[in-house]
Amino acid sequence: MDAFFVSVELRSRPDLRGKPVIVGFPAERSVVLSASYEARATGVKSAMPMAIAMRMCPAAIIIEPRHKLYYQVSGQIMNIFSSITDLVEPLSVDEAFLDVKGAIRRLGSPLDIGHMIRARVQSELGITASVGIAGTKFVAKIASTRCKPDGILQIDAEDTLSYLHSLPVNALWGVGGRTGEVLARLGIRTVADVAATPVASLKKVLGAAGEHVHRLSLGIDPRPVTPTRLEKSIGAEETFSTDTTDPALLNRELLRLSHRTATRLRSSDMLARTIALKLRYADFSTVTRSRTLHTPVDSAQLIYEVAVGLLESLGPRAQSVRLVGVRAEQLEPAARTSMQLSLDGRDDNWRAAEQALDRVAERFGSKTLLPAALLERARQAEDQ
Question: Where along the chain is the active site annotated (predicted)?
């Protein structure tokens, strides 16, 4: 999808179309989650610190994220893909590989299918998608990136090498800024330069990745589209606007993050056997702790209780906390797990209550009902 979070928000804010829009929290320590192409034209990028983005684009309109809405739309996107082919491999909430060989007789050429997907996403969801078509996953990914926004690009097999060799070296997977600098010192600046360099020379400077990069420069990517790909973990984290040692504030943030994580678990029909806590201190040192449970969970209250226990196990803090995070790990499908009743029934009461909250939020919005402990933060947000 094109600028996915922003595109979803603009459905209810059409007055902002054509303007620089950033999805993220306006706090200095937050990061850009998504930026419109108008904002990107000023240099704003995803994952950029919000403080830098606001300096680069002072006219940008900041919209706070609505993660549950994005995951709902993501599910609709994946449903469209699944109606085309069973071979769908999600890469993220808004991107996937589709193997359409089996759909050609029914739906037409790959180009026809690409146009169909873009038309359905636009008409059914009100957002735009860019489609890359090629004989391998790697080249299809490059094509989809190069035709953004709202485009479609097919790279035929006979044109693959000539197209790849016209691109800068950072178009290759695994070649980031640091690797690009290493290669540039050897005079390697394009994909064609990589292809012309002996594998032994690349391995000398890049290690085992040298052979991988060389194969990609020749368009070699034998990996099939793998449709069964479960998320390995689900979680959420928050960077405080000011470093804190306040236990009440830390606990309240853990509760909020536990609800975000549990909501995503339930919407994905997943349960977690392991809960992990992440703390980053003022000096940027990071510690993590985790606990594996006898019975998998998807309840915010149960996740919160484990997270608080992990926090308390760390003992008194010698310095203030910059970031806190909660993560659910060792995921398994809820449908395959036999939910066991707890001895006093409280676990199941919490789960039933939170499922009711899900239904209310789906109908009336995510801020309709909140745990009482989170009301103070919600009021502060409204006052701002």
Answer: 95
